[in-house]
Amino acid sequence: MQEFNAFVGVDVSKAELVAAFHDQAGCRSIPNDAGAISAWLHKLPDGAALAMESTGRYHQLLATLARAAGLQVFVLNARDVYFYAKALGARAKTDRVDAHVIARYLAEQHKHLHPWQAPSAVLAQVQCLLGQRWTAVTKRAALHQSLQGCDAAIASQVQALDLAFNALLKAIDARIATLFEDDAHLGAQRALLQSIVGVGPQSSALLASVLEQVSFGSGDALVAYSGLDPRACDSGKSRGRRRLSKRGQPALRRQMYLAAMSACHTKAFEGTYKALRQRGLKTTEALVVLARKLLRIAFAVWRTGKPFDPQRIPQSLDNKP
Q1: Residue 33: which residues within 8 A CB-CB, separation 6 or more?
Q2: Domain 6-112, CATH number (from 3.30.420.40, 3.40.50.2000, 3.40.50.2300, 3.90.380.10)
Q3: For 13-45, what is each residue's pLDDT tens digit?
Q4: Suppose 285 and one of 49, 130, 156, 281 were both cysteines; which one would form an S-S bond, judging by CB atoms 3.0 to 4.6 Å apart?
Q5: Cα–Cα distance list, 123 to 117, 127, 161, 211 (Å)
Q6: What are the residues whose beta carbons fall under 8 Å from the beta carbon of 261, sequence distance 6 or more?
Q7: Could you tell me which residue ranges the Transposase IS110-like N-terminal domain spans (predicted)?
Q8: Which pTM does this prediction carry?
Q9: 46 vs 284, residue with greater confidence
C-alpha cells in the first residue's frame, strides 16, 4: 500500500475547482481549464493523493491531468461523501466545506479505495456516449410520463419528438458499435459478452466499458459495483427486509434487469427463473437474482476469455432478493 504525505480534496464545478489540504485551514480556487490546473498540480508536494467526486464530465479534466502528473487519483462516489458529511455533523454545504470533507474522507479511507485509472481514448469515447445515451433514455421516459393524455392538437408534435429520440439513440448505438469494431481488443471482448444469453448490444457495451476500466477481484465485486447486491438490515435476533444497495450506475442495473427479462424465457435460464419463483420470490425479485447471476457469468467470461457455455452454469442459486 502506497504511503501518502498529503491528502488533497477538490470540489469540482463547471467553471472552478476549490481545493483543500487535509488538516490545513483555507482553500484555493483554480479555474477549471487545462492551463490553470496543470500549473497548480506542479506545485503540489511529491507523494500527494488527490480526490474529487464523480461529477459526470466536469471532473474528468482534473482527473486526467493529475494522473498524467504522476499523482494518485481517487474519484469518489458523491453519495458516499454526502453521507460521510452528514455523519460528521456538517452544518453547512459550500464548495469550501465540501473540499475539506473530501480531503478528510480521503485521508481516513484511502486504504479502502481503488485508485482511478485513465481510460484509453476509445474507451473514454464509449463511456461518454453511454452516459449521453442514458441521459437521453431517462429524459425520454420523463417526457413520456408528463405528456400522457396530451391535447390532440399537439399529439403529432409529441410523436415527432419520440421519433427524434429514437433516431438519436440509433445514431449513438451506431457510433458505439463503430468504436468497438475499430478496437480489436474491445471488439473481441464485447463479442464474448454477447455470447451470454440475454446480453445484447447495449448490455455488452456497458459491461465492456465497466470491466475494461475496473479490475474486479470477483463476480461478487462486480455485483456490488452495480448496486444489485442485497443490503442487510439486521439487529439482534431481528432479520430485516433485504433491499438493494443501489450504489452503482443506474444504467448498469437497468440493462442487467432487462437482460434478465430476456434470459428468463430462454432454455438456458428458464429453469433457474422458475425455480426462484417456486421458492416464493416475486417476479421482480427473481429477475434481480437472475441479473446478479448474469453479472457473475459476465465476469467469468471476461476473465477467462471463453464464450458462455450454458452447460457450465452453476446449479447453486442465489435466492437473496
Answers
A1: 61
A2: 3.30.420.40
A3: 999 999 999 999 999 999 999 999 999 999 999
A4: 281
A5: 12, 6, 30, 11
A6: 198, 287
A7: 8-149
A8: 0.84
A9: 284
